[in-house]
Amino acid sequence: MSAANNKPVKASERLINLLLAPHVSEKAARVTEKANHYVFRVRTDATKPEIRAAVKLMFNVEVLAVQVVNVGGKEKRFGSTIGRRSDWKKAYISLKAGETIDFTGSVKA
To answer: Higher confidence at residue 1 or residue 44?
Structure first.
């Protein structure tokens, strides 16, 4: 159920909204090159089976494993006020050998 309007949300809509963005960092690039893993920012309420299904639905690839990391937000100081960044979650997706995810959006004919 959706909290905002109390209407049931379709499973495919939830899966599409689960992956927020690919996470781009030096570590993510290194992991992608060496181990055929991809790193995504995901919703904080996402579960491993949902993430697996979302990647399979959106990119049509075979997912071997999903590891999830909860990243705590940092405390930041704004003058005399102490603030806090939001917590977030990232997922390391391991793909079957020989499969890749193309983020450029180019279509094979």
So the answer is: 44
